[in-house]
Write a structure and sequence with these properties.
By secondary structure, the protein is mostly beta strands. The protein contains 2 helices and 19 strands.
Length: 261
């Protein structure tokens, strides 16, 4: 009778039903450029002592952000009206290493400022410490940014070998922010093999240099053009193909000669 009394209580079942979920929340990048894509990574651990059944993650995206996508290591996720909901199933308790699942959510933060993502993980089991998995927030700093784009347009669609022609390089600031008043924009242009640049690039407000230094015509090197205010066009001399990059701006134009074939 004594043995039956010791084994007959209800407390062991209740104790083993408890599962302490822990939600860890991180972001990347932080800080990052406004208008760019940011990733919130949410890791849900079960610190035990029992099985965490029916685990659900609910993530409220920053107000004004744009949902891009979500991935999960278990179960499935959906998004509606700025809230991501994930049904992750059961998470067992293991020791010494805990068992966990991970959800990664991507959003676009359109303007500069501090944005806050809030997430909650729940289980149908008893959670003895909900304070470490309910309304866990993650502030993210988006900094003012300018998405620079450059497009090259030849003066003619086709030319005779050896005939001079030019490229116009058009740079655009796709935002979301304007360039600072003291910003300096730079275009770099790599001279293609087999082409000859016959003169210095031209463009109002632009200054140009070439490395290695020397006089024109040039059949090799990298030309750098810069300006102290936002512009949208510069013209480059003749060549069969080209590679150019822009940081904070577009610019000038040189003349080049296409090689004879």
């Amino acid at each position: 009778m004594l043995l039956a009394a010791l084994l007959g209580g209800s407390f062991p079942a209740a104790a083993h039903a408890a599962a302490d979920l822990v939600l860890n929340h991180s972001d990347s990048p932080d800080p990052g450029p406004a208008g760019g894509i940011f990733t919130y990574t949410l890791r849900i651990d079960n610190n035990g002592p029992g099985l965490a059944t029916g685990v659900t993650l609910t993530d409220t995206l920053p107000t004004g952000s744009t949902f891009v996508g979500v991935t999960t290591t278990a179960g499935s996720c959906s998004q509606a009206s700025g809230v991501v909901t994930c049904a992750l199933g059961d998470i067992p308790f293991t020791f010494p290493a805990t068992t966990f699942q991970t959800v990664a959510i991507q959003v676009r933060l359109p303007t500069a400022g501090v944005w806050t993502n809030v997430a909650t993980a729940t289980t149908t089991a008893t959670d003895p410490n909900p304070g470490n998995n309910v309304d866990v927030d993650q502030p993210t700093t988006a900094q003012a940014a300018a998405d620079m784009q450059i497009v090259a347009a030849p003066s003619a669609a086709t030319v005779t070998a050896g005939e001079p022609y030019s490229y116009a390089l058009v740079a655009t600031n796709n935002g979301p922010d304007a360039l600072a008043s003291d910003a300096r924009q730079t275009i770099q242009f790599a001279v293609p093999g087999g082409a000859t640049i016959t003169s210095v690039p031209t463009g109002t407000g632009w200054t140009c240099s070439i490395v290695p230094a020397g006089v024109y015509p040039r059949s090799s090197g990298t030309i750098t053009s810069s300006a102290s205010s936002m512009r949208s066009r510069w013209v480059f001399g003749s060549m069969p193909s080209m590679k150019a990059s822009v940081t904070s701006w577009p610019g000038p134009q040189p003349s080049m000669t296409r090689p004879r074939v």
